[in-house]
Specification:
This protein is α+β, with helices and mostly antiparallel strands. The protein has 5 helices and 7 strands, in the order ααββββββααβα.
């Protein structure tokens, strides 16, 4: 009787600890989501990202956290075209909180196999989780402009305020921008909301990443 009593109490204690952990974790992510809902500009995005990868999504898989069985996650694998920030790699696999059946309280970007993307990924948390900076703001998808035929990058916010709060003249001077790069930065909507062409975008990432502590605002 006594043994059963202690077993039940031990089970309830472990279960309560797990529930408390998950609730605190979800609450933390909720507040993080609210913080990330504000617009982040290109300089902030580049600075906050631990890795910036240009590549193609080759796998999207629902699962659970390997160490937290009650934590739903999505595993995303990207075949790398170029690592714009972070160590060299042929493939990048990362684990994002929530999945297609349970997004919990936080909206997270979704992925499709075959998408060509540029992802600004936060440094991984202690649990190995990451996601694009500013949620959907840090996930850019390559789209073809039917008028120009160019390959353009747009995020889920249609590049709204992508270059907001930046001093275009200061950016141009400090980073030695080309005419095309300067035109993109001058227009906060990223060429009137039509996106930024892939070549220009990647060049801007490299230049911003090379000057992380510059005052560009």
């Amino acid at each position: 009787m006594t043994k059963n009593y202690y077993r039940v109490n031990l089970y309830l204690s472990i279960r309560s600890a797990r529930i408390a952990f998950l609730l605190s974790f979800i609450t933390l992510l909720s507040f993080s989501g609210l913080a990330n809902s504000r617009s982040v500009n290109f300089a902030e995005m580049t600075s906050h990202a631990g890795r910036i990868v240009h590549g193609r999504v080759v796998e999207v898989r629902d699962g659970v956290h390997p160490l937290q069985e009650h934590l739903a996650v999505t595993f995303i694998k990207v075949q790398v075209v170029e690592m714009l920030k972070g160590g060299a790699a042929r493939e990048v696999t990362f684990m994002q909180y929530g999945n297609s059946t349970n997004q919990y309280l936080v909206h997270q970007p979704k992925y499709q196999v075959g998408e060509e993307v540029v992802l600004f990924l936060y440094p991984e948390s202690k649990l190995g989780l990451t996601s694009p900076v500013g949620q959907g703001q840090g996930k850019f998808v390559v789209r073809h402009d039917p008028r120009s035929g160019q390959r353009m990058l747009l995020n889920e916010h249609l590049n709204r305020a992508l270059f907001a709060r930046l001093d275009a003249a200061r950016v141009s001077s400090k980073l030695a921008l080309t005419t095309t790069e300067r035109e993109a930065v001058v227009k906060p909507e990223g060429r009137a909301g039509a996106g930024v062409d892939v070549t220009t975008f990647r060049s801007l990432v490299r230049k911003f990443a090379a000057h992380p502590k510059s005052n560009l605002q």
